[in-house]
Every structure is written in C-alpha cells, then in structure tokens.
C-alpha cells in the first residue's frame, strides 16, 4: 500500500500533500533557556509570615514560617521555620 505522504492538522481539516521528490531533514539541537525565577531566593522569606521564634543556630528572635500536613489528618501540622538572619531551617512537629 503506497499512499502519498502528507502533513495534516489533527484539530482542523487542513491537509498538505507532499511531493515524493521532497526530502525532509531536521537536525536541531534545542538549548534549554535559563529562566529567571518568579520569586528570587532573597524574596522567598519576604512572602512568608513572620513570628518570634528563637533560632537554635544564632539566637535571632525573628523567623519566617510555613505549615504543612505531613502526617495523618488527626495529627497536628508540622511547622517549618527559617531564621531571618542566618537562614537556618528547623521544624517543630
């Protein structure tokens, strides 16, 4: 079964028949672009709520925090802290 080659669009009725004399070669190396982060590492702590929690590393009293449910639903949430001065991370279960 020798059918003619064709390009077609799967979402509309467009069809383009290809002559048999045409050879298609495609060799493109795709280079991944570096993307700028939406939130930089410096802005990361500014978007989190802040509380007074002493840092176990440097003793600074202000820390950013976030909570996540890491265990079953009847257990309390885990609170993650990041020191605003030295960026040390710790958690409280």
TrEMBL record:
The lineage of its organism: Eukaryota, Viridiplantae, Streptophyta, Embryophyta, Tracheophyta. This is Uncharacterized protein isoform X3. Gene3D superfamilies: 2.20.25.10. Signal peptide: none annotated. GO terms for cellular component: RNA polymerase III complex. One of its GO terms (molecular function) is nucleic acid binding. GO terms for biological process: termination of RNA polymerase III transcription. Its main location: nucleus. SUPFAM superfamilies: Zinc beta-ribbon (SSF57783). Residues 51-91 form the TFIIS-type domain.
């Amino acid at each position: 079964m020798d059918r003619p080659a064709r390009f077609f669009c799967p979402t509309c009725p467009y069809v383009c028949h290809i002559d048999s004399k045409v050879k298609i070669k495609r060799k493109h190396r795709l280079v991944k672009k570096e993307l700028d982060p939406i939130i930089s590492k410096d802005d990361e702590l500014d978007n989190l709520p802040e509380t007074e929690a002493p840092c176990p590393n440097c003793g600074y009293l202000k820390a950013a925090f976030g909570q996540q449910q890491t265990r079953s639903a009847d257990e309390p949430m885990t609170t993650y802290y990041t020191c605003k001065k030295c960026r040390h991370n710790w958690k409280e279960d």
